[in-house]
Amino acid sequence: MSTTRSKDGHLLSRRHVLAAAAGGAGASLLGMTVKGAEADPTRVQGSAPSPLGARSPFEQIERKPVAGVVSLTPLERLEGTITPADLHFERHHAGVPRIDPGLHTLLMHGLVERPLTWSVDELKRFPSVTRTCFIECSGNYFPRAGEFSPPHLVCGLTSQSEWTGVPLATLLREAGVRRGASWLLAEGSDAAVMSRSIPIEKALDDALVVYAQNGEALRPAQGYPLRLLLPGWEGNTSIKWLRRLEATDAPAMSREETSKYTEPMRNGSIRQFSFEIEARSIITHPAYPAVIEPGWHEIRGIAWSGRGRVARVEVSTDGGRTWMDATLQGPALPKAHTRFGLPWKWSGESTEILSRATDETGYVQPTLKQILAARGPGSAPYHFNPITGWRVQRDGELRFNPTG
Amino acid sequence: MSTTRSKDGHLLSRRHVLAAAAGGAGASLLGMTVKGAEADPTRVQGSAPSPLGARSPFEQIERKPVAGVVSLTPLERLEGTITPADLHFERHHAGVPRIDPGLHTLLMHGLVERPLTWSVDELKRFPSVTRTCFIECSGNYFPRAGEFSPPHLVCGLTSQSEWTGVPLATLLREAGVRRGASWLLAEGSDAAVMSRSIPIEKALDDALVVYAQNGEALRPAQGYPLRLLLPGWEGNTSIKWLRRLEATDAPAMSREETSKYTEPMRNGSIRQFSFEIEARSIITHPAYPAVIEPGWHEIRGIAWSGRGRVARVEVSTDGGRTWMDATLQGPALPKAHTRFGLPWKWSGESTEILSRATDETGYVQPTLKQILAARGPGSAPYHFNPITGWRVQRDGELRFNPTG
Description:
The structure is a homodimer.
Chain A: E1 3-5, E2 11-13, H1 14-21, E3 28-29, E4 32-33, E5 64-66, E6 70-72, E7 90-91, E8 105-110, E9 116-119, H2 120-123, E10 129-136, E11 158-167, H3 168-175, E12 183-188, E13 195-199, H4 200-204, E14 208-213, E15 216-217, E16 227-229, E17 242-248, H5 255-258, E18 263-264, E19 270-271, E20 280-285, E21 295-304, E22 310-316, E23 324-325, E24 327-328, E25 338-346, E26 351-359, H6 368-375, E27 389-392, E28 398-401
């Protein structure tokens, strides 16, 4: 709730205090209206209808660009399950290309009966499917134990949208899959010519070639005008700016499935084609930079699994000694962010709050110790999904604990 | 699909032709890249991660402001069911107020045990509910038969969001409803001091006081920082900029429930408190200004009902002589826009396409003739939900037929 109390007892949110300190577009402090808002809005005619509805100047919200190649969704600022399109995380290997949809085509070739090329408009003529699901980068930032411990949430490389497009199975049926075609190479038209190999079974199952996100055209950072969507699989397999699909009898062994996006295991082997996102949950509220007061709060967060529905989320408010079942917000869709909540009365003493997801296959979100026992200390930071939480300090401040 | 063919056979969308004609930010015409997009985007490093993901310059989309008091959602440009927040329709009686959330409070008083006032932050501490549903203005623009016949869709006063807030039942339990309290007056803090009377049964059923829309804070035009949400009821009962709830033993008979938002009936009586939105459907694709070619298309649209789930949508491609069941896109949520689709092969002859929704109560969307028979010719334009469609001309152009 990020509330703090001023000396005269007036409730103020930390956000407003920060906004006022930063000289924001408008902010109230100690009951004083700074600018842009009316003390009594019923006395003044409001603004006229507009072509686009802007955000309130009191609600500035942004993604966090990091290291020139990603920007993180501010999950700690969001409710519900839909990520507004302009806040969907982005991750790219050579920047966001600017593509003219009138020139863009999708080529299907290789082990098919009829090589075909479709324009974007032609793809929109096929029967469409709309589906709500998350996309999570398998590198959704996770510091290895002991490296460092930032105060804020570090898991903003997962976002959710309602996607619309054509089933890839429809396009494969049009082209005619030849015997022996067991993989598809999917290739983007960015400067990295990003490509991944996809087993044909997934292509024929729930894969989509999407052109719309939350009702409107894809945003450029999410692959405009076309992206592959592989529900539940690691994000970079959902190739953005999709231009080519080649049916083959073996994986292409591209850079992104050999030197990257693989996991060294404890026994010296390398785990490759680890496509599925395993169950995970995070607490988004209360969360840094909120400062809480003793009393009732709702612990809220999101849970997700690439294998199906979230079946259960447990929350601990005593650092993992005891666990309670949180309420799941319906509809709990498969391969989708699912909201959970648990009312909690904070005593004012320091403690730690944690969450743990179980999906419908029975898979339980592991501890960091369990992950490291399986993969060894040299494991690259892909597919890290340990139980995490927040250290609640006596002063009401929160510190993210990425190691659970 | 709004495709057209240039003389050399290259597929071009009408949108690009129009954009090029208008000297838009970027457009391709006859294979020539005008500006802003690369002919081969793989040759150029793309743009870096950004705080907010902008739309493609090729996808300008806006609401349509009309008459200084509304702006319409461009339903004919959208897929799926979620309306991006900046495209949610707006309707207000004295403009959009600019409200400082740190100063805004909600008062509950009248026939309650304990009059209470909550700040926005205090409301966020209660257990929350997230729900996806439509809001439709009961005046969702409908020209009376014969008045005029615009070429475009005229039903953009319905939009859908994922809303998050606190159940009104929770707040009523906190305040303690006294015997005899059968209505709640809900009042906004805009310059119109917009108010409506709500039966206590609805308040205790599925009413919410919401603060978030599609994950983020409400937009000002949708009631920031607080709005009442009455799922399935006419839009103006979902009071925006909510500041006061007064429990009473009778409706307040405010302007918006006496001189407005009532329907004269054929027998001379006036229908009042006609809260529920009855089942309706519209075809959003193909739709003006698209120009279609003979061949396969998917007829797509949305259907909704304020009484529950959409059970069935039928589509006619021969002006109503025969009807086929469209496919409903799941999950079909109650009181929510639901997508339907039907593949259709257009012969190139002029015809008319129509849609008809049935909800889970068995209610069937009526014809205009049926509505006028019940209400008489003097009926005000509220709660008009007749079957509508598109006249498909031989040249592939489409004209909205608001009278079915």
